[in-house]
Every structure is written in structure tokens, then in C-alpha cells.
Amino acid sequence: MNSQGSIFADLNLRQTYRDLPENFYQDIAPQPLKEAHLISFNPSVANWLGLDACRVNPSDLARYFGGDGILPDSQPLAMKYAGHQFGVYNPQLGDGRGMLLGELVNRDGQRIDLHLKGAGKTAYSRFGDGRAVLRSSIREYLVSEAMYALGIPTTRALSLVGSEEFVMRNGMEPCAAVLRVTECHIRFGHFEHLYYTRQHDALRELADYCIARYYPQFQNEEDPYLAFFIEIRNRSAKLVAQWQAYGFVHGVLNTDNMSILGETFDYGPFTFLDEYDPTFVSNKNDHEGRYAFENQPDIVLWNLSCLAQALLPLSEKDALVSALNEYRDIYFAAYYGLMRKRLGLLLEKEGDADLINQLILMAQAQKADLTRFLRDLCDIAVESPATIESCMQHFASRDAIEEWLTRYLARVALEAASQPIRKQQMRSVNPAYLLRNYMLEEAIREAHQGDYRPVNTLLGIIRKPFETQTGAERFGEAPPDWAASICLTCSS
Fold it and tell me: What is the pLDDT of residues 156-168, one digit of tens each?
């Protein structure tokens, strides 16, 4: 079958990463999945790419993104990088189960990468088989869209393709592939690789490429590399503030999983907190709790320090250190700003941070579900005892929450917005639905039996997390008791 008549015939793909030295990557071709078939397709991403979603042929998706064909003008490659994994430097990293297919330019002039994850072995697979399993592919496909809908910077995915090929993970598991879409697949680890191998000319070449393509506004700066780093610092600090505000636990926050665009990248054993527990570790392979929820802001700073070190041949040490020292102020400003919005506090007043901190400590002590509480808080009104009771029922200690609510309502009274306007604003930032692990587990179980309907049902729900949806009521309720026993590892 040729590409003639396919909507993918006119993508006009390029591969500007090939402008860099050949040792930055490996030429590679996808390895076809056996009996590849389409599980899910994301029309929202298709529209972003400039594709007519109504003209996309499912067989084309299964063919091109199941590895049984190469897109017109595609020149696939696997990228070489390194990184700190659980705090230990590992030089033997790269695209071990994925490949960059090429770049297209959409209607808005954005240059967007197409990256196929689960496409087979590369030079960087080490002892792996280069495959992704259905379980982890469903998780990444759905969570990337869930994060996007919440307004959290993230990679996205166009399609999820299944197969009749099996590999050994937790027993024999079916393989799958995700077509990941974002403007950039360059990681902190790309710079670390060139720094530690003393390829300083190549390091400058990579930095110049990144600035020209992603941050052209810095090309004429006195120190463009410092400006480049500061922008990455700002984006990374604001990103982790969003994670903390919405209870997202990444799970494997290594430097090779950090994007220079400040996006959530390379999903593994992620979690959205059910009960608020700052010590929660989503990855059972993280025996020391390095990537616990409460540690994420400091880990991002640590990762930024690794990037700063890698940029030492290009920029002054004192300036980079000074930029790192400003990180915490940027993070806390972003975090408290987000939490004020979630509480409906549009004005910034003295005591707001203490009000937020008191809520967090109370939620921690009483193992409350902050997501469900804050959704009910949207409706609270002094003249409506029922709405106050709805908020109180999320906490075991009524005295503690009653005291906090009294203080909160007094603070809300200082806002200029009326209760209906405040409710509308709060509902726009407090989701009715989060992609919780039990939902994914249910969808994965059914998918292993050949029923992909739950995957597509969840996709529809999570694309509109702030809207109450008919038929989705149970997804806004408390997670079932068995959800606490879900075990996630690096293979997730």
C-alpha cells in the first residue's frame, strides 16, 4: 500500500535535528508490530497538527504508527543523551524504544515533532527490546491529554496502536505504540551527555540549535546561553508548582525526563493523589522515596543545577548560580498564585499563604481528598448550610474544618466578585474529574480482554475535566478502597 490518497501524504515532514552532527543520533527504521490495530485516536491533536480529523483513515494510523510503514519524507532517528537517574549519572541513555519521525509545521507556524514510542530496538536500547506494553501506553496516552485539559504543560499523543505481539514485563504483555506529539524532544540529558564527554563545541552547537528553534528572542542577548537557562528555570519552576497544586506525582523525575520547554515529559509511574499525603511515593522502585510528592520542587531545582553545570562551558558560573538561587521565589509565587485561584481568591492579601498552608496541613492530617473538597468548595455560600455541610463531610474532624471554613468565608467576603462569579471562576480551575489510577486500571483490564471502549470513554471525560458530564458521575466520586493497593513501577 502506498501513501497516495492518504491524508499523511501532504505532511511535508522535515528533520532539522539532522542538521546537528551525526553522533547526536542513530538512523533507524520502525520495527512493525504484529497485527497492529488502532485503539484510540485523538482528534484534538489532529486539529493542532493541521490534519482534518474527519479524513484520517484508521488503517493509516495503524500502519504508520504501528511501524509497518514510513511516513512520506520521514527520516526516523533515535536521539542520544545521558542523564542522572535517581541521582546517579548514567551515560548509557538515549531513545531506547522510540524514534523521532520528523517535524511538521502547523497552520500557526509551530514546528511540531512526531515521536513514535514503542517502535523497536535502537542503538540505545541496551538490553531492552525497544517495545512499549499496552499498559504503559494507555497510561501515557490518556494522562498527556488529561494534563493538557487541566492547563498543565505536557507532551500530547495523536494515536494509540495495539498489537498481537507480546513481550515479558509483568508476565507476557501485549505491545503497543503511542505517537507522541510536542514541539521539542530535547532533554536536560542531551546537554549532560555532551558536557561529560567533553564535546564542548558540540554542546555550543546544540545550545545554538535550541535557541534558534525554540527561543529565538534570546539570540541577540549579551549571554544567550544564560537567558536560555533562565527561561528553562522559569518554565520548570512554574510547571512543578502546577504539579503540587493539582496533586500530580511524576514518579521518575530524572534529568533525562526533563524537557527544555518545561513540559511534563516521559510519563511512567505517575499518580494524582487520592488522599493528600506529601510523603506519597508513586514508584515502588523508588525505595528511598527520592521522588515523593513533597520532594518534587527540590528535585526540579536539583535537576536544573545539573543542567546549569552542563552549561558551564558556555556561560559564567556565578550567573548560573544566581539564577538557581532565584528558583524558590519563582516556584512559591507560582504555587500560591495557583492555590489562590483554586480557592477563588482573585485579590492577593496578607494571610492568604497561611490560609492555604493551614488547609494543606489539615488535609494531610486527615487524609482528605483535596480535589473533591475544592470542587465542593466552589458552591459554598454563607446562606446555604447544605453547601457548608458538603464541604465539611470531606474531613473527619469537623471542628478543624469548621474553623477553617469560618476563616475562609470571612476572607472570601473581602473579594469584589459575587458568589455566582466566584463559583464560575473556581469551577474553571477545580476539576470535577481527575485521571485517577483506579480509572486507568479498569481501562487497562478491559483492554487486555480486547475491549477498548473504556479507554475512549475516559478520553472523552478527561478532555473536559471542569464540566459536569452526564453519565460520568461515578468518576467524580471517592475512589474505591482497592485503589490504594495499585502498585506502579518504572515499567508502568
Answer: 999 999 999 999 9
Catalytic pick among 113, 256, 266, 274? 256
pLDDT tens digits, one per residue of 426-439: 999 999 999 999 99
pTM for this predicted structure: 0.97
Cα–Cα–Cα angle for 413, 419, 425, rounded to 5 degrees: 110
Q: Residues 170-227: pLDDT tens digits?
A: 899 999 999 999 999 999 999 999 999 999 999 999 999 999 999 999 999 999 999 9
**Residue 3: pLDDT above 60?**
no
Q: Which residues pair with 79 in a beta bridge?
A: 25
Cell, residue 259: 524537557
Residues 6+ apart with CB under 8 A from 154: 144, 147, 148, 182, 263, 264, 265
Write the pLDDT tens digit of every residue in 317-340.
999 999 999 999 999 999 999 999
**Residue 399 bears catalytic tag:** no
Q: What is the 3-state secondary structure (H, E, C) of the chain?
A: CCCCCCHHHHCCCECHHHHCCHHHEEECCCCCCCCCEEEEECHHHHHHHCCCHHHCCHHHHHHHCCCCCCCCCCCCEEEEEEEEECCEEEEEEECCCEEEEEEEECCCCCEEEEEEECCCCCCCCCCCCCCEEHHHHHHHHHHHHHHHHHCCCECEEEEEEEEEEEEEECEEEEEEEEEEEECCCCEHHHHHHHHHCCCHHHHHHHHHHHHHHHCHHHCCCCCHHHHHHHHHHHHHHHHHHHHHHHCEECCCCCHHHCECCCCECCCCCCEECCCCCCCCCCCCCCCCCCCCHHHHHHHHHHHHHHHHHHCCCCCCHHHHHHHHHCHHHHHHHHHHHHHHHHCCCCCCCCCHHHHHHHHHHHHHHHCCCHHHHHHHHCCCCCCCHHHHHHHHCCCCCHHHHHHHHHHHHHHHCCCCCCHHHHHHHHHCCCCCCCCCHHHHHHHHHHHHCCCCHHHHHHHHHHCCCCCCCCCCHHHHCCCCHHHHHCCCCCCC
Spatial distance between the Cα atoms of 53 and 393, rounded to a whole number of angstroms = 44
Q: What is the dihedral of CA 303, 309, 314, 320, to 10 degrees?
A: 70
pLDDT value of residue 10: 83
Provide φ and ψ at 105, rounded to 5°.
-110, 125
Rounded mean pLDDT, 30-36:
97
Percent of the chain with pLDDT over 70: 99
Terminal Cα-to-Cα distance of the chain (whole angstroms): 35
